[in-house]
Design brief:
Layout lengths: L2 H30 L3 H27 L18 H28 L3 H31 L1 H5 L4
Helix pairs in contact: 1-2, 1-3, 2-4, 3-4
Length: 152
């Protein structure tokens, strides 16, 4: 199997591990600040990212590679909600680009299963990006009134 594909899978896994850490850190901060509704959604997305990391690890192992356990960045803490959303949108946008590019490489390497894995993850990352974008739009338009609906 292709080392190039294994490297892409590990790069993706590293990014997923970063997203997990980031979203869970935000979950704890939001929960502590009584933004329970938003905290719950961030936790839900973090769990989805955990499942992504696991699927990537399983594929890496199948290809006789060694799954990384290192995130590619340290989570940002102490951000405002708009800053959190900006951070999360950047993470998801980068994942969307990377997974699109990776699926093309996998096709060129004649690894249809890895290509399909990246495409599957891509669809879920686009959903996450859409969610963060929608929340950011609500915060931008409605401000504190909208944030008040996210408490409890």
């Amino acid at each position: 199997m292709s080392k190039k594909v294994i490297d892409l899978l590990n790069e993706a896994r590293s990014r997923e591990l970063t997203a997990i850490s980031q979203y869970m850190a935000q979950h704890y901060e939001l929960e502590d600040s009584d933004f329970g509704k938003l905290a719950s959604k961030f936790k839900e997305i973090a769990i989805a990212e955990m499942k992504h990391a696991e699927r990537l690890a399983e594929r890496i192992l199948f290809l006789k590679g060694e799954p990384t356990s290192k995130p590619d960045a340290v989570p940002k803490k102490g951000q405002s909600i708009p800053e959190m959303l900006k951070t999360n949108m950047a993470l998801e946008s980068q994942a969307v680009k990377m997974y699109n590019d990776a699926s093309v490489v996998c096709a060129a390497e004649k690894d249809q299963i890895s290509k399909e894995l990246f495409e599957s993850l891509l669809a879920e990352e686009e959903d996450h990006l859409n969610y963060f974008d929608n929340i950011k739009d609500h915060v931008d338009k409605l401000g504190a009134a909208y944030l008040a609906t996210l408490t409890g």
